[in-house]
Amino acid sequence: MSTIPAGAVETTARNALLLDFETNTVLFEKNADVEIPPASLSKLMTLAIIFDELKRGSIRRDEMFPVSEYAWKTGGAASGGSTMFLPLNSQVSVADLIKGIAIQSGNDATIVAAEGIAGSVPAFAERMNAKAQELGLAHSHFANPHGLPDPGQRVSVRDLATLAAYLIRTYPEEYPLFSEEEFTFNGIRQQSRNPLLAYGADGLKTGHTAEAGYGLVASAKDEKGRRIIFAMTGMKSTAERATEARAMLTLGLKGFENVVVLEGGKTAGEIPVQGGAEPSVQVKAAGEVRFLEPRGSGAPYVSEVVAIGPVEAPLPKGRRVAVLRVSRDGKVVREEPLYAAKAVERAGILQRIQDTVMGHFR
Fold it and tell me: Catalytic residue at 82?
């Protein structure tokens, strides 16, 4: 993971991380590895487990789970927290539970899902922690599926961003759910708490407890399709969360740009081939060569093709034969491998003799 300076950026959030999705480049961070209470942001892990179970075929979308008294008391209407308003002893489908968690942030929905999948909240928490270990979430530990205060529950904003990236990358068919603005269940219509959906974000989740403050994990694309992810926690109100999140959204989408040095599929140049049926071969990179950087941050890049020693025929297509050396202000900033764009056969004996003779007179 690389990091680039974002200039003089400030945020009132206690913890924040802004990430370029494709390159995993950190654009801004503040106390990104400090362990904090996750509040409802832990529901992203709950959804990850549900999506995993669906993918494995362990559960079905139309499968019905019962609403236990524990789920009703702890996360239902009487609890005073975020709820899906599930009736006691009713049955609810997995599909509705997913929406109730992602859109309404229902605590009761997470408990019903946990009990339906793992048999109990503690057993489900074990699955959450196993997933956290699998994803390399070094500063996270889960004790319940909803995020209500528990001394054994913690995350970091870096881990939350990693988890969001996992959901986007692994479950693209599920991800549009996070951009839905409302959901009606049992005659009750509720709206998403994500303040950025109206400003171009397409997910993911908000959270709040007295201990954690107001937090958010969000993602959005710019007009060229570049995606950012950011996680922020520790704000003091919904208004502050909305203001700071919009500022982070603007920074991520407008404050940085991709500078393309070599377009994907384009040849970078050519290098000589000794003893070949052709005197040279064109070379290309494995993909697009570009830099993500703050807008207007410096002088233009200069690139040159440098062969890796003498290149001799026969030369197969795709062999690494050169590097694209990229410089700025006279300093080399990157060397990208280059590969033969086509095969070059060995020249015939007469041509090799001629090339050798001609070489003596050059």
Answer: no
